[in-house]
């Protein structure tokens, strides 16, 4: 029999190393448990991750930041339009039967079908009151009655009557005068003036 043959070696068993050959490191294979025959595998993987016991493959477990931001944006848009719809429905049964929400991406009032009135519906946490006041000043210069309606966290359609309204003081004063509040006095021209000074 050829001396180089090993009839008693079992299938899969590594051949015996020839003593005359230089020693080479044994090749390791990945096992079903994530370990290798030669010990833990710490070979760098794609993305700089290492596999093996206690290791995490970053490619598989990295959060999808883009998808998360997209979901948040969609949720904000949905809440914004839902709030516009709730406000429009409120005015529909309170004197403006043609009130309709406009949705996102359209300039002007958030609710149409209410001539002479400009409404901004704010349903996000990052509300900027000063910016809203400046916007109302621009709308008032066009002859509209502007105000902003806020939907705070935890406020649904069942309590819409308690949603806060932001309006400029000068606009509110004119509304109070027109509604008959405040003292009046006749001037020499016959024009009614309103006394808003405190007594």
List keywords for this structure.
199 residues; alpha+beta; three-stranded mixed β-sheet; two-stranded antiparallel ribbon; 4 helices; 28% helix; elongated
Average pLDDT reading: 74
CATH level-two architecture of the domain at 69-182: 3-Layer(aba) Sandwich
End-to-end separation: 125 Å
What is the rounded Rg?
38 Å
Q: In CATH terms, what is the fold-level topology of the domain at 69-182? A: Trna Endonuclease, Chain: A, domain 1
Number of helices: 4
SSE ordering: EEHHEEEHEEHEE
Shape: elongated
Q: Going across the major beta sheet, what is the strand order?
A: 5-6-7
Give a structural overview.
11% of the residues are buried. This protein has four helices and nine strands, in the order ββααβββαββαββ. It has a domain at 69-182: Trna Endonuclease, Chain: A, domain 1 (3-Layer(aba) Sandwich). It has helices spanning 58-61, 65-92, 129-141, 169-178, and strands spanning 35-36, 39-40, 100-101, 111-112, 117-122, 145-150, 165-166, 183-186, 192-195. Mean pLDDT is 74; it is low at 31-39. The longest helix is centred in the middle third of the chain and has 28 residues, at 65-92. The strands form four sheets. Strands 5-6-7 form a three-stranded mixed beta sheet. The chain has a two-stranded antiparallel ribbon with strand order 1-2. Strands 3-4 form a two-stranded antiparallel sheet. It has 199 residues and is of the alpha+beta class.
């Amino acid at each position: 029999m050829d001396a180089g043959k090993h009839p008693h070696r079992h299938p899969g068993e590594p051949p015996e190393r020839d003593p005359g050959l230089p020693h080479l490191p044994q090749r390791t294979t990945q096992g079903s448990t994530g370990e290798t025959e030669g010990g833990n595998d710490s070979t760098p993987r794609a993305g700089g991750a290492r596999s093996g016991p206690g290791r995490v493959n970053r490619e598989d477990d990295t959060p999808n930041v883009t998808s998360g931001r997209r979901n948040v944006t969609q949720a904000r848009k949905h809440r914004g339009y839902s709030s516009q719809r709730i406000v429009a429905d409120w005015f529909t049964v309170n004197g403006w039967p043609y009130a309709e929400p406009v949705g996102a991406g359209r300039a002007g009032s958030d609710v149409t079908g209410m001539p002479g009135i400009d409404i901004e519906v704010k349903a996000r946490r990052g509300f900027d009151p000063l910016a809203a006041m400046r916007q109302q000043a621009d709308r008032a210069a066009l002859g509209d009655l502007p105000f902003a309606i806020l939907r705070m966290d935890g406020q649904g359609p069942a309590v819409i009557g308690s949603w806060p309204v932001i309006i400029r003081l000068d606009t509110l004063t004119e509304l109070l005068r027109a509604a008959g509040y405040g003292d009046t006095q006749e001037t020499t021209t016959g024009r009614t003036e309103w006394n808003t000074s405190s007594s």
